[in-house]
Amino acid sequence: MPRLSTIAVIAGALAAGCGPSEAATGRPPPKDAPVADAPPARAESGSTDQAPGVADDEATADGAPSAPAIDGETAAALEALGYFPSAPTDNPEDRGVTVAAPEGTPGLNLYSSRHSANAILIDMSGREVHRWSARTDGDEPPKPWMHVEPLPGGDLLVITKAHAVSRIDWDSEVVWQAAIPAHHDLAVRPDGGALALIRWADTVDYEGTRLPILADGIAFLSPEGEVERRAHLVPVLEDELSSGRLERIRTRLEASGPAGIVRGGGLGDVLHTNSIEILPRDIEGVAPAGSLLLSFRAIDRVMIVDAEVERILWRSPGGLTQGQHDATILDNDHFLIFDNGSRRGASRVIELDPVSGEVVWQWGEELYTQLRGG
Length: 374
Description:
Blueprint: H1 6-15, H2 20-24, H3 72-80, E1 109-112, E2 118-122, E3 128-133, E4 147-150, E5 156-160, E6 164-168, E7 174-178, E8 182-188, E9 194-206, E10 209-221, E11 227-232, H4 234-237, H5 243-256, E12 273-278, E13 292-296, E14 301-305, E15 312-315, E16 325-329, E17 335-339, E18 348-352, E19 359-363
Antiparallel strand pairs: 1-2, 2-3, 4-5, 5-6, 6-7, 8-9, 9-10, 10-11, 12-13, 13-14, 14-15, 16-17, 17-18, 18-19
């Protein structure tokens, strides 16, 4: 099945008025803005979202303008954009920017694909401004980059799924690399360190039976890439786990053993944490600055845990979202969330007031992606 380039999807978002500057200020597209067609997302088959121990030369476009290192404001704007990896298309020859409304906010867009080991800065016309690429080592192809985060000065933090977090400089040289089972997302600390989502094979007690699961956690990285500590999320959220899922794990375990249970997106993926953000300031009545905003796809919840990852400070209303992604704090202290609506068959973007628990704005027409989005 042909896939629609993420660049085209970004262009559609820009046509809706959600350019980098607006993303950084937390202003979603207006309800009546034109958007590019968004066909249902392709469900990736043969997933390789595996944790360790779990079954399961730099190129630039000709004539591209030279670009200065990224400043802090631009890095924040790029980081604020969500993601949408691919979707079916009836027009496989359409590449680059296919929709660019004049009201789109000027700026640069950071594009990366989880199927390749590079990241590209493009302007509003789709013209390549700069490219970072993984260096090859012998005959082995580089591992794809699952996620990238821009840093002030032009460096990138790169997640190589289930393998490492690396800091890559403007010239694509590796500054440091932390060998950890990272996945999905990371958050940059004010001191230049990072908090990266990690996961590994583990067990949890359920009514006296030890069940195999894929456990989620957070690795705290220093500015130099040293692992300061690891925090385990399952003990903090144990009461939030789906009893129905745990019962199905036990039934499967008793019927056919542990094979196939512990894998990304599988039955044993009891939390499936897919986004992390550090609250930059206090939210009165909700949580203090430094707390962690997290999205857990498997339990249909967005939550805030304390900075030490010891207790839950806030949780989204039950039943509000289904398989959601990319929870982000806005300037008004509301949260912007991509609600996949995985069982409704309809996706939407919502703005949630965390104090009242009310959805104060939403957007989505003929939009559906079951497994991803942002």
